Amino acid sequence: MATEGHQASRARLDAAETEVDIAKAVAAEEIDTTAAESRQRIEDAAAIRRAQVEAIQEESRVKAEIMRDEREDRRILEQSKFAEELKQIKESRSESRRQMRKKGDLEKELMEKDSKRKIDRMDEESRAKTSAMWDDFNLRERRGKRARED
Questions:
Q1: Which long-range contacts (CB under 8 A, 24 or more apart) does 12-18 make?
Q2: What is the number of other CB atoms lying within 10 angstroms of the CB of residue 34?
Q3: Over the stretch 22-74, which tens digit does the pLDDT of each residue have?
Q4: In the chain, at which residue ranges do the beta strands (DSSP E only) sit?
Q5: Which residue ranges have biased composition labelled Basic and acidic residues (predicted)?
């Protein structure tokens, strides 16, 4: 009889250990999945940052083009008999540039705000998922310990 009781206890212990092993494997897989999602979020954030850098580079190219145009305007103004006509063209360009700069500044500001919101949201989601997984894992560990103690 003692042998049968011992065998039954051993079978329950083996079942509990198997359940713990399965729970650990599931938790590890969930952690790996969360890590992959976190890497994807980091890659997305890097892509957003690259887009911002490209926008800044484009802005620099536009500024360089504007400076070339202004130098050309001065040269033409010095050589031209039609200074008034050139002045009107220059004013029109300046207004157009101001509008382009204003639009570019607004777009850049919106991109930065949107990027920050996305990154903050992704970080919060990642923290919440990781915390939930650890809570679940710890709960399973405690249950496994109780089952082994029983």
A1: 12/147, 12/150, 13/148, 16/144, 16/147, 16/148, 17/144, 17/148
A2: 16
A3: 888 888 898 888 888 889 988 998 998 999 999 899 999 999 999 999 999 88
A4: none
A5: 88-128, 137-150
